[in-house]
Each structure stands twice: as structure tokens, then as C-alpha cells.
């Protein structure tokens, strides 16, 4: 965790990046669920505290995991309106790829903020993640 008193800029930047990640995820959850958009923008004027963002990210991760478990057709197209008002259409597979790619990009930015604040962070690669999630893969 970044010490907000010693590194206020890095802390604020990391929170803003997490906020943006979760907003984009929540927007795509609403698109995949055919519900109204929960946000009008991909950022907010007021950034929630870390605990709230952590809870929302956890809820988002649980939702996506459950969605993928019951998903039947990744090539199905979903039409929607982006936060900037432009129309869009992506397949479910493309939306899922976007969520992973988008979050990875911003996690890299957060990792840089952690570096600037001298906070060690875990390796953030898929290979590490999947082997922690499925330890039996290490027994090959």
C-alpha cells in the first residue's frame, strides 16, 4: 500500500487508475447484462476510497467469473453506446479481451506508482496468476 502522507501524488494517481478500471468494468457489465449504464463517464470528479474500490473490483471479478462460467456464445455481438456517446458493437469475446487488456494496461500504470513510492508489488503476469489459481498445473 502506498503511504498517502509520504507519496500523495502516487497514492492519488493509483486510486484514480483503480477507479477508472472499475468504472469501465461496471459499464461493460451493464452492457453484457442489457441494463442501463451505471456511469456517464469513465472517470469521476470524486474518487472513492481504496476500501470501496477494492470491494467493487472484487464484485466485478466475481461477476465476470460467473458470467464466463455460464457463457454459451462468445461470438454473439453486443450493441451499446460508449460513455462518449458513440455507438459501438463488440462480440462477447472482444469485450472480455478488452476488459483483461484494459485492466492490464492500467495495472502497469499503478505498478509504476508503486515503484515511485518504493512499494514492492507482485509480478502481475497471467502465468503466475493461473498457477496460483490452479496449483495442480505446477505438477507437470
Automatic annotation (TrEMBL):
Entry's transmembrane regions: none
Keyword line: Metal-binding
Superkingdom of the organism of origin: Bacteria
Segments forming a coiled coil: none
Key word Transferase present: no
Pfam families for this protein: DinB
Record's keyword annotation contains Metal-binding: yes
Family: Belongs to the DinB family.
Protein name: DinB family protein
Organism field: Congregibacter brevis
Amino acid at each position: 500500500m502506498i503511504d498517502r502522507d509520504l507519496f500523495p501524488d502516487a497514492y492519488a494517481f493509483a486510486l484514480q487508475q483503480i477507479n477508472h478500471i472499475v468504472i469501465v468494468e461496471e459499464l461493460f457489465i451493464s452492457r453484457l447484462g442489457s441494463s442501463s449504464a451505471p456511469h456517464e463517464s469513465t472517470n469521476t470528479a470524486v474518487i472513492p476510497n481504496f476500501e470501496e474500490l477494492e470491494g467493487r473490483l472484487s464484485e466485478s471479478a466475481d461477476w465476470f467469473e460467473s458470467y464466463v462460467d455460464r457463457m454459451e456464445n462468445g461470438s454473439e455481438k453486443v450493441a451499446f453506446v460508449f460513455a462518449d456517446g458513440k455507438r459501438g458493437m463488440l462480440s462477447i469475446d472482444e469485450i472480455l479481451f478488452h476488459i483483461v487488456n484494459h485492466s492490464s494496461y492500467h495495472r502497469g500504470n499503478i505498478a509504476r506508482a508503486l515503484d515511485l513510492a518504493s512499494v514492492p508489488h507482485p509480478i502481475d503476469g497471467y502465468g503466475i496468476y493461473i498457477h496460483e489459481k490452479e496449483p495442480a498445473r505446477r505438477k507437470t
